[in-house]
């Protein structure tokens, strides 16, 4: 861009206009993956914007994973795809989340079948004696990029035929009136190890998130207990906070 063209003709806060200008330059290949960005000071000189405005635009790009900053060597256009932002306050399915973002969801089966439950499954799913459990284990992909491994356990009567699940588990549950309406989720930090790291395509020890979701029907019956591991570099979980009443 020449001087003065950095902001475009739009309105709105200057840092947002600068940010979208940089995003556009990245999107149309003017700034390719891995390309260095000028130093903040240089951008400020070029554009006549204040350092504060430039820093704010850059910080936004860094927060979104679009730009990476390397200590001592400056800022670069990230060569990793941007993170997926996932809301923590709505109960949606993986497929719905991806479709909403214009990404295509797909799954690779790692296992599915009907089993004798473990003591943990009996407890969490509140199974009656002798009741079986359905386990489905999938690698979830967004636009072919591995995002998470999900291991779900369900009481067999809510999902009598696990082979019915094509891409979306919640779609099948919905069709039989068993879609969960409430869920509790616990998120913890982990280092991805062994097979999980390999399946997700990351180095052993890479950062990940473990998420456990227990989902309920309106009558408070547990429909699903899912333990997932997410790639730490693929997801940002976002929650809206309000003042307590
Ligand atoms: C989400 C849920 C998972 C659920 C799945 C259904 C988390 C951490 N997990 O990935 O518990 O089974 O959605 O998605 O959000 P599906 O309908 O696409 O199979």
Enumerate the strands of the largest sheet in spatial order, edge to edge or round the barrel: 4-5-6-9-8-7
Q: What molecules are bound to this protein? A: 2-acetamido-2-deoxy-6-O-phosphono-alpha-D-glucopyranose
Q: Rough shape?
A: elongated
Q: Main β-sheet: number of strands, strand sense, barrel status?
A: 6 strands, antiparallel
The count of DSSP E runs of length 2 or more, i.e. the number of strands, is 10
How many domains would you count in the coordinates?
2
Q: Can you give the helix content as a percent range?
A: 25-40%
Instruction: Encode the helix/strand succession as letters.
Output: HHHEEEHEHEEHEHEEE
Strand residue percentage: 25-35%
Mean of the pLDDT scores? 90
Give the helix tally: 7
Distance N terminus to C terminus? 50 Å
CATH class of the largest domain: Alpha Beta
Low-confidence stretches: none
Question: What is the radius of gyration?
Answer: 22 Å
Helix and strand content put the structural class at: alpha+beta
Do you know the CATH topology of the largest domain? Chorismate lyase
Question: What do we call the CATH homologous superfamily of the largest domain?
Answer: Chorismate lyase-like
Q: What is the CATH-assigned architecture of the largest domain?
A: 3-Layer(aba) Sandwich
Pfam family, one: UTRA
Keywords: DNA-binding, Transcription, Transcription regulation
Protein name: GntR family transcriptional regulator
InterPro entries: Bact_HTH_transcr_reg (IPR050679), Chorismate_lyase_/UTRA_dom_sf (IPR028978), Tscrpt_reg_HTH_GntR (IPR000524), UTRA (IPR011663), WH-like_DNA-bd_sf (IPR036388), WH_DNA-bd_sf (IPR036390)
């Amino acid at each position: 861009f020449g001087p003065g063209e950095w902001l475009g003709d739009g309105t709105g806060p200057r840092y947002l206009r600068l940010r979208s200008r940089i995003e556009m330059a990245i999107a149309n290949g003017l700034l390719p993956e891995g390309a260095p960005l000028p130093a903040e000071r240089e951008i400020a000189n070029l554009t006549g914007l204040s350092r504060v405005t430039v820093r704010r635009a850059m910080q936004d790009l860094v927060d979104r994973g679009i730009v990476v900053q390397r200590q001592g060597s400056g800022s670069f256009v990230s060569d990793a795809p941007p993170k997926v932002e996932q809301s923590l306050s709505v109960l949606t399915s993986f497929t719905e989340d991806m479709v909403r973002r214009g990404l295509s969801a797909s799954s690779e089966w790692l296992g599915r079948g009907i089993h004798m439950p473990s003591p943990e499954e009996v407890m969490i799913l509140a199974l009656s004696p002798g009741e079986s459990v359905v386990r489905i284990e999938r690698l979830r992909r967004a636009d072919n990029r591995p995002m998470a491994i999900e291991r779900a356990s369900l009481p067999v009567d809510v999902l009598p035929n696990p082979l019915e699940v094509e891409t979306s588990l919640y779609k099948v549950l919905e069709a039989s009136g068993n879609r969960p309406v409430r869920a509790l989720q616990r998120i913890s930090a982990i280092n991805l190890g062994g097979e999980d790291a390999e399946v997700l395509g990351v180095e052993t020890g890479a950062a990940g998130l473990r998420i456990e979701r227990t989902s309920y029907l309106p009558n408070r019956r547990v429909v699903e207990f899912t333990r997932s591991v997410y790639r730490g570099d693929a997801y940002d979980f976002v929650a809206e906070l309000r003042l307590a009443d």
